[in-house]
Amino acid sequence: MIDTLVLDKTHDEKRQGEAYAAAPIGNTAIQKHFYIESYGCAMNFADSEVVASILQEHGYGATTQTELADLILINTCSIREKAEQTVRKRLTEFKQHKRAKPEMLIGVLGCMAERLKAKFLEEEKLVDLVVGPDAYRSLPALVEEANGGQKAVNVLLSRDETYADIAPIRLNSNGVTAFVSIMRGCNNMCSFCVVPFTRGRERSRDANSIVKECEALFNEGYREVTLLGQNVDSYHFIDESNDVTVSFAKLMQMVAKISPLLRVRFSTSHPKDITDEVLLTMKQYDNICNYIHLPVQSGSTRVLQMMNRTYSREWYISKVDRIRELLPDCGLSTDMITGFCTETEEEHKESLSLMEYCKFELAYMYFYSERPGTLAARRFEDDVPLETKKRRLQEMVALHRIHSLEGMQKEVGKTFKVLVEGTSKKSEEELYGRNDQNKVVVFPKHQFKKGDYVMVNINSCTAGTLIGEAIIN
Ligand code: SAM
Ligand code: SF4
Ligand code: F3S
């Protein structure tokens, strides 16, 4: 069943199901091992790195082998029904391991833990721990409780937890690019979305701790940070020590100033909140990447209103025009939902025509999946038949394929500065990296290595990759 087309490695679900590689071992003696698998958005992946840090402090080292684990954790996503089904299937497999090794603990973390709370323990008998996204500091105590034979649950949401003082342990890292959480939660209440219920109120992390984390990453050899939040443009931190308010634009500036060699990306922007100040800051700093993920969800103003997105089709288009005016070569991507409650054929066509206007380089497309407890589930009927949702999604996917190929073809003949992320999957003799606009570039390796910036002439492309030759001085 398709409910999504994912063309990019950095976004949400492409990384679903990847297990983490073993974490580096710190000073604390490792007595036991945990295995963690993460699903959902980049924020969940970043949270798993916080969890790894908390557990390591308490004598747990990471392993990639479930058989070696004393504790199996699954960091879950609730965004669509399918995401939850995937988790349940995986849990069934983990429970087989537990049958063979009964002393092993299984813990459910993240958004599904928050949504289902203690119900999880009734539904999934062999689960020992249920821990919500704001309760990870209590994980060691909960593990202890579960080791003593109790079922352990903590799903309290917090108004101020940001894990600001915890240095995440980079799991499954390429050593070049890293996610840095700058805020938690969301105040937006889009009617289709479960996130405000699973992640709680929006809070911004201390700007100084963000800069410190990015500096440490740079000193360790990382060359790109992606600042993460559900709505980064509403980042807002009051620094009482200096009596200043830090906006998102100001935060980007602070991070960009660490070094011109450190690339700065961010995700996700909400069309209602992205400001000229942000766009002008992007223009001012060469190391802030020209790429914006600007989810639109629908091209119909009536549907957008029902979704509670608080902007119209025209507002969105005017934002795109402004981005193109200030940052002519900016890469643009989006999220789309087809078949939202009461969406008509005409309104679906409006989504297609909006895509035609914007020609997104990348689009993450889903059919609407009703989530229990959301505004839409309570107020509207999920009345577009599944077959219609799927057909509309396929039409959208087909249109986007044309746009993404056109977007790649227009880059042939150009030269880009590429940050090398590693060896190409297809050949040991080739490297891959990304350009400023987040497009994947592959080229013969010569003397170059991971973490280098390389100027690459683009000779050809596929729908997902630019292929070129490095300029060698
Ligand atoms: N905060 C981001 C924003 O406002 O655009 C996105 C957050 S959400 C984690 C990622 C995407 O999942 C959304 O942009 C939306 O397209 C999709 N999504 C969320 N709820 C959905 C639902 N109930 N059914 C289908 N897709 C959904
Ligand atoms: Fe969900 Fe809307 Fe918040 Fe994004 S902005 S996380 S879609 S409620
Ligand atoms: Fe999923 Fe929670 Fe992220 S619902 S998309 S893991 S915030």
Top keywords for this entry?
binds S-adenosylmethionine, 3 domains, 5-stranded mixed barrel, 23% strand, Rossmann fold, binds FE3-S4 cluster, 6-stranded parallel sheet, 14 helices, alpha/beta, single chain, binds iron/sulfur cluster, OB fold (Dihydrolipoamide Acetyltransferase, E2P), 473 residues, 22 strands, pyruvate-formate lyase- activating enzyme
Task: Please state the average pLDDT score.
Answer: 92
Q: Give unreliable regions as ranges.
A: 1-25
The CATH topology of the largest domain is: pyruvate-formate lyase- activating enzyme
**Major β-sheet annotation:** 6 strands, parallel
**Termini distance?**
49 Å
The coarse silhouette is globular
What top-tier CATH class of the largest domain fits best? Answer: Alpha Beta
Question: What structural category arises from helix and sheet content?
Answer: alpha/beta
Bound molecules: S-adenosylmethionine, iron/sulfur cluster, FE3-S4 cluster
Q: How many domains would you count in the coordinates?
A: 3
Count helical runs. 14
Describe it for me?
- With 473 residues, the chain is of the alpha/beta class.
- The protein has three domains: 9-154, Methylthiotransferase, N-terminal domain (Rossmann fold, 3-Layer(aba) Sandwich); 177-409, tm_1862 like domain (pyruvate-formate lyase- activating enzyme, Alpha-Beta Horseshoe); 415-470, OB fold (Dihydrolipoamide Acetyltransferase, E2P) (Beta Barrel), CATH 2.40.50.140.
- The protein is 33% helix and 23% strand.
- It is built from 14 helices and 22 strands.
- The chain has helices at residues 42-57, 81-100, 111-116, 119-123, 139-147, 195-199, 207-219, 248-256, 276-284, 301-306, 313-326, 345-358, 375-379, 386-409, and strands at 4-5, 32-38, 60-62, 71-76, 105-110, 129-131, 152-154, 177-181, 183-184, 203-204, 224-228, 236-239, 244-247, 263-267, 291-293, 331-338, 362-367, 415-423, 430-434, 440-444, 453-461, 465-470.
- The protein has a six-stranded parallel sheet with strand order 3-2-4-5-6-7, with helices on both faces. It has a five-stranded mixed β-barrel with strand order 18-19-20-22-21.
- Helix 2 links the parallel strand 4 and strand 5 (105-110).
- The longest helix is centred in the last third of the chain and has 24 residues, at 386-409.
- The radius of gyration is 22 Å and the shape is globular.
- It starts with a strand and ends with a strand.
- Bound molecules: S-adenosylmethionine, iron/sulfur cluster and FE3-S4 cluster.
- Residues 41, 79-80, 192-193, 195, 230-231, 268, 270, 295, 297, 335, 337, 366, 368-369, 371 line the site of S-adenosylmethionine.
